[in-house]
Amino acid sequence: MDQQLHGIPPVPVDKSKLVTKSSSANNLSTFLFEPNELVDYEKALRWQQNWQKRLIFGPETAQAVWLLEHPICYTMGKGASQKNLLFDPNTSPWPLYRINRGGEATCHLPGQLVAYPILDLRRYTTDLHWYLRKLEDVLIDVLANLELHGERVKGLTGLWINGQKVAAIGVGCRRWITQHGFSLNINCEMESFKKVVPCGLINHPVGKLNDWIPGLTIKEVKPLLTRSLEKQFSLKWQQIGPMERTEDFATPIQMIHKKNFKDENH
Amino acid sequence: MATHDIFMPALSSTMTEGKIVEWLKKPGDKVGRGESVLVVESDKADMDVESFQEGYLAAVLMPAGSTAPVGETIGLIVESEDEIASAQEKAPQPSSKESPQETSSTSEQPQSTPTQASSSQISNTDNSKNTTQQSSIKAPQVVNTGRIIASPKAKKLASQKGVDLSTVLGSGPHGRIQLEDVEKANGQPISVPWVAESNAPASIAVSNSVSKATVSNNQPATAESLLGKSFGTAGEIIAFNTLQQAVNRNMEASLATPCFHVGYTISTDKLDELYKEVKPKGVTMTALLAKAVGLTLARHPQVNASTSPEGMSYPNQINIAVAVAMEDGGLITPVLQNVDQTNLSDLSTQWSDLVKRSRTKQLQPEEYSSGTFTLSNLGMFGVDRFDAILPPGTGAILAVAASRPVVIANKDGSISVRRQMQVNLTADHRVIYGADGAAFLKDLADLIENRTESMLS
């Protein structure tokens, strides 16, 4: 129903064209952060924003990828319609964040693996649609490794198995430095998704990998995702040093809207 | 005093329009350089659009939630607080959905030129996809040291040609390395867009280098066998870049205009003589032709008029747009202002500045959209005749072919050799009739053949 909403349909990208430029080959080094405990949405967002700033002001800075799980919360893109929240935003059962990524409302929760690649698209190709398709490629790869067939749906962004949406994608970008990313439902409970219209798609049931592979855990999927990201974006994983280990590196930044939903122009 | 436009950026090579999600600033707010002003969305991707200037957001022309074509002006930034009011006054009403014809027909043409307000990364990437295949050419490893800021195309070319970017001096905003800087560093002749600078047939060597760069590995043809330009290789489909899309829209719009063509053959011996005389002073053939046309238009205001919804519209000035093909596809029409009132050397200076800045995509909208008459010259290719498509918002365009020696039978029965060129006028018949066009051409021919000295005044 919402074909319109997402505007331009995916364009197949010839992979042979995605060879990265040799001049920037040394720039594809990337830190991989895999916090073991659940990470509050705000904290993860702050990490991303700080890293985005690092990349903006230091074009030689290494890129970063976070793979993590959030405690339950809802997020919605700034362009998202409140109609897709099936509850009163002021009495949200869980924290609700309005964020600067594309896309509609979605739900994050334990059992869902979230990936936040902070990549400098100038090191690849400055094309956000290319990037969206590339993230789908990453997910298709991961599922193929699990012998699942992930499908694209024409005109939409995300990944489906047998008509059930298992992965949601939404990205933000500033000076071609990305933030946000995708979430892959693995063994999460699905009730909370019923309180929103995920990605604004009515009649698109949401699924999790557990439905096809019972007993599958995040721990098993993480290495597959790591490898696939590495392959699709030619990432060179960097040793994490003491600088990167510190919890909240760099400067504090202004926070987005918190638990209690407020209007944009505060 | 300056007003800077904020344009709808291209988030992707396939994007034709974007949705404004949110204005992060309100009209009147102070804006720092590099500060995000609004958020634009396409598909599931958001992009923060930053201001390239420090100043004040004077006007929001498209409100949040609305959709605008790539390259459209969506907001205005002024440098000082005092300018806010005047910029707001001049600005079109926000999201005037009913009258986009007016603003878009004039500003649509070269939509990918914005570099002003949206970040330069945005505006320089419109055709990243068109050229992606070039990256398959093997290039020697380039070692970068220090902080290097270069346009994607410059980086690409540098990697193809093995130019070390750390040794290249950038001429772009804030020392950013542009494509032409890399070309210069590589010792390549700068491939100027095919600007008509002479009526003599030019060598087509320029496009040779283009085709070489465009040939990709899977193309069996050798670079040398490819003389013409190609954006893709056999079997491929290449998306139009933003500028090409803008041109396409304009060309399609012309189908709604009832046009006719009228041609004339003009002897150019006197013009060539004059050119020889003024060339050392830096006067170009483009300036000469524009001047001749401008002076003639001053005597034929009907040919400078255009169709508007209210009727025949007579502009206050004679502004001649000159079509310039862009290396990477599409074309742009930099405008020589007030041509009949401006002397040749000023016109030449104006022109070289416009060409320089159109190469780096730094033209302001009024510099490419304010033409009242268009000139298209393929003379340098030796073309003997062609006709042009009328750009929307104007009444006529003149196609100028090459000047070549022709054997002439004179009235007294004698035979002589003269240089002649054919010109062909395409005109909107609603405003300009055959007789108007013919009279204009006759007068233009008379000026070029007999009254060239009037161009010097």
Question: What features would you highlight for this structure?
Answer:
heterodimer, A: alpha/beta, BirA Bifunctional Protein, domain 2, three-stranded mixed β-sheet, disordered N terminus, disordered C terminus, B: 457 residues, alpha+beta, OB fold (Dihydrolipoamide Acetyltransferase, E2P), Chloramphenicol Acetyltransferase, 3 domains
Write the layout of secondary structure elements.
The complex is a heterodimer of chains A (266) and B (457).
Chain A: E1 29-33, H1 41-57, E2 63-68, E3 73-77, E4 96-99, E5 106-108, E6 112-118, H2 128-145, E7 159-161, E8 164-174, E9 177-185, H3 218-232, E10 236-238, H4 242-245
Parallel strand pairs in A: 1-2, 1-10, 3-4
Antiparallel strand pairs in A: 2-6, 3-5, 6-9, 7-8, 8-9
Chain B: E1 3-7, E2 17-23, E3 30-31, E4 36-42, E5 45-50, E6 55-60, E7 67-69, E8 73-78, H1 83-90, H2 100-107, H3 120-123, H4 128-132, H5 152-161, H6 179-185, H7 205-214, H8 242-254, E9 259-267, H9 269-278, H10 285-299, E10 306-308, E11 311-313, E12 320-322, E13 324-325, E14 331-332, E15 335-336, H11 344-359, H12 365-369, E16 373-377, E17 396-409, E18 415-428, H13 434-450
Parallel strand pairs in B: 12-16, 16-17
Antiparallel strand pairs in B: 1-8, 2-4, 2-7, 3-6, 4-5, 6-8, 9-18, 10-11, 12-15, 13-14, 17-18
Question: How would you characterize this protein structure?
Answer:
Chain A is of the alpha/beta class. Chain A has a single domain (4-11, 27-244), classed as BirA Bifunctional Protein, domain 2 (2-Layer Sandwich). Chain A contains 4 helices and 10 strands, in the order E-H-E-E-E-E-E-H-E-E-E-H-E-H. Chain A has helices spanning 41-57, 128-145, 218-232, 242-245; strands at residues 29-33, 63-68, 73-77, 96-99, 106-108, 112-118, 159-161, 164-174, 177-185, 236-238. In chain A, strands 7-8-9-6-2-1-10 form a 7-stranded mixed β-sheet, sandwiched between helices. Chain A has a 3-stranded mixed β-sheet with strand order 4-3-5, with no helix packed on it. In chain A, helix 2 packs across helix 3 (218-232). Mean pLDDT of chain A is 80; it is low at 1-25 and 247-266. With 457 residues, chain B is α+β, with helices and mostly antiparallel strands. Chain B has 3 domains: 3-118, RNA polymerase II/Efflux pump adaptor protein, barrel-sandwich hybrid domain (OB fold (Dihydrolipoamide Acetyltransferase, E2P), Beta Barrel); 128-185, Dihydrolipoamide Transferase (Irregular), CATH 4.10.320; 257-456, Chloramphenicol Acetyltransferase, CATH 3.30.559.10. In chain B, 28% of the residues lie in helices and 22% in strands. In chain B, strands 9-18-17-16-12-15 form a 6-stranded mixed β-sheet. Chain B has a 4-stranded antiparallel β-sheet with strand order 1-8-6-3. In chain B, strand 10 (306-308) and strand 11 form a beta hairpin. The longest helix of chain B is centred in the last third of the chain and has 17 residues, at 434-450. The model of chain B is unreliable at 94-146 and 187-224 (pLDDT under 50). The chains are: A alpha/beta (266), B alpha+beta (457). At the A-B interface, helix 2 and strand 8 of A face strand 2, strand 4, strand 5, helix 4 and helix 5 of B.
